[in-house]
Amino acid sequence: MEVKNWLLTGLTMFTLSFVACDDDENKGEEPPVPVTFEVAVSDVETTSATVAVTPSDANATYYFDVVKKATFDELGSPTAVAEKVIADLKKYQAENGAVLSDTLSQGNDSRVYTEVLSASTEYTACAFGVDASGKLTTEVFTQDFTTKELPPLVIEGFADCTADFWGDKKGTVNGKWVLTLTSSDWIKYMNLEVATSLDQKANPVGVYEISNPYGEVGTALPGYQDGDNFEGCTYIEYTSYPAQGLFLVSGTITITSTGEDVYKVEIDAKDGDGRRVQAVYEGDMYITDKTLGFGDGDEEEEY
């Protein structure tokens, strides 16, 4: 019994000694410090900004970019955004014979985003660690910013106005009016399409919200280009060829009668870049009922 007790005691001491040594060795190993990034945004203008990134580890590989803040809201988390950014980047590079490592950064880096941002828009600059395979290696670090507004565009010089009532003949469930404002030299041209009730044939007086979907009473069709044609609420200056359209995508069109056969058309809208666009026309309105003459033997009626 004494021999067995001695043997058991010896084994116990050996085991404790081994564990103690192992613990001492582990105490000497510090856990890796997570890499962090400082993201700074400067020189913010209407369509440009500068993004600078400073990593805590100069040897870490990372990627940074600017993404619309709405994308973060849509995808739900910074990690989901980063994963999508890398997935899209890898797809683009594969199509163009490049690899991810070609665009990864190390050390301090910065980039000027010029003419690639939209005015009056919320963005998020983000940076995150990523290896050559596309695997994220750190958290996502962000900095929000908003681009400046473009100066308002005030359009003057409209001298004539026509207004054509199409009823439901041209794609709306209600009445459709198309107004055309032009300058005396025909250089400036604005097209406005608004929806009224079917029985509002005398004039297009009313307040209209430029919106999508379009067609309900009190709405106006956002501008767009269909081939060579400019549709909806669009402004064009024919100073060069091909002409470039400015498309109104939101805002209000107000049409009032200010006297006998005198109308006022006020536009307070925004284009696709968030720029405010304003215009006023007051004068005669040449009104035509286009619902007549569609195969029923009637002629167009002018007012």
What does the model show?
The protein is an alpha+beta fold. Helices cover 17% and strands 44% of the residues. It has two domains: 37-146, Immunoglobulin-like (Sandwich); 153-302, no CATH class. The protein has helices spanning 2-27, 69-75, 78-95; strands at residues 37-42, 49-55, 62-68, 109-113, 122-130, 136-146, 153-155, 158-167, 175-183, 188-196, 206-210, 219-220, 224-226, 229-231, 234-237, 245-259, 262-271, 276-283, 286-289, 301-302. Strands 7, 8, 9, 10, 11, 12, 15, 16, 17, 18, 19 and 20 form a twelve-stranded mixed beta sheet that branches. A three-stranded antiparallel beta sheet has the order 1-2-4, with no helix packed on it. Strand 1 (37-42) and strand 2 form a beta hairpin. Residues 1-21 and 295-299 have low confidence and may be disordered.
Topology:
Elements: H1 2-27, E1 37-42, E2 49-55, E3 62-68, H2 69-75, H3 78-95, E4 109-113, E5 122-130, E6 136-146, E7 153-155, E8 158-167, E9 175-183, E10 188-196, E11 206-210, E12 219-220, E13 224-226, E14 229-231, E15 234-237, E16 245-259, E17 262-271, E18 276-283, E19 286-289, E20 301-302
Parallel strand pairs: 7-18, 8-19, 11-12
Antiparallel strand pairs: 1-2, 2-4, 3-5, 5-6, 8-9, 9-10, 10-15, 11-16, 13-14, 15-16, 16-17, 17-18, 19-20
Would you summarize the structure shown here?
The chain has 303 residues and is an alpha+beta fold.
